[in-house]
Amino acid sequence: xxxxxxxxxxxxxxxxxxxxxxxxxxxxxxxxxxxxxxxxxxxxxxxxxxxxxxxxxxxxxxxxxxxxxxxxxxxxxxxxxxxxxxxxxxxxxxxxxxxxxxxxxxxxxxxxxxxxxxxxxxxxxxxxxxxxxxxxxxxxxxxxxxxxxxxxxxxxxxxxxxxxxxxxxxxxxxxxxxxxxxxxxxxxxxxxxxxxxxxxxxxxxxxxxxxxxxx
Length: 215
Ligand code: PRT
Ligand code: MG
Hints:
Blueprint: E1 5-10, H1 13-24, E2 40-42, E3 48-53, H2 58-63, E4 69-73, H3 74-79, E5 85-90, E6 96-103, H4 104-107, E7 117-122, H5 125-134, E8 138-143, E9 159-164, H6 168-172, E10 175-184, E11 186-191, H7 192-197, H8 199-210
Parallel strand pairs: 1-3, 1-4, 7-8, 7-9
Antiparallel strand pairs: 2-3, 4-11, 5-11, 6-9, 6-10
Bound molecules: phosphoribosyl ATP (PRT) and magnesium ion.
C-alpha cells in the first residue's frame, strides 16, 4: 500500500458540489477536473491525489484500496455489495430521494398497500429487490442504465425506481411518486485497511472534510 493518500470522487453533480467542500478542507486540485484529461490529479497537498471517476466505480476503487477515501452517492453505496469499505460521513450534498414512480393514470387507481407483484425498471436492482422483499412484495426487475422514466411510457415496465430531486423530470413525463425508498446524499467512505495503516493522515483529513459538511 502506497504511503500517499488518494481520494476517489464521482464525476458529474457530486464532483461539482464536492470540490468547494474539499477546497474548504484545504484540498485543491492543481488542474481543473472539469477540463483536465488527466485521470489522476495532484493537489496542493503533497502526497494527496484525486481520481475523478464514474459514480458506480467509486466503491470498487475504495474497496480494493486503490483509493483510500471515496465520495459517492448513497444510492451507489446501497447498490454496491462488497466488503472492505466503511461509510464515515454524510456530506449533505447532492441530496435527492430514491422513489417508486408510476404513470399518473395508474396512480389514480393504485394502492401501494395492495401491491403483491410488480414489474419495475431501474438501475437500482439490488436496492429495489431488497426493499420489496422486506415487504413481501414480489418483483420482476428490468435492469436499465439510464432514462428510467421512459420505461413505463413505452410499456417496458409498469413502474420505475429512480432518484428524484425537484420532481420536474417525473412531471414532464406524467409520472408520479408513490413510495419513498431512501433519502440520498453523498457520503465519505474509507478503505478499512487504509484507515488502520494510515490512521494519522486519514483521521486528520476526515476531520477537515467533516468540518465542511452540509449534513
Ligand atoms: O454519468 P454516469 O452514468 O457515470 O453517472 P450518473 O449519470 O449517475 O452521474 P450524475 O452526475 O447524474 O450523478 C449521479 C449522482 O448524483 C447519484 O449517484 C446521486 O447520488 C446524485 N444525485 C442527486 C442525482 C440526483 N440528485 C438526480 N436528481 N442523480 C441523478 N438525478 C437524476 C434522476 O435520476 C432523474 O433522472 O435527475 C433526474 C431527476 O431530477 P429532478 O430534479 O427532475 O427531480
Ligand atoms: Mg450521467
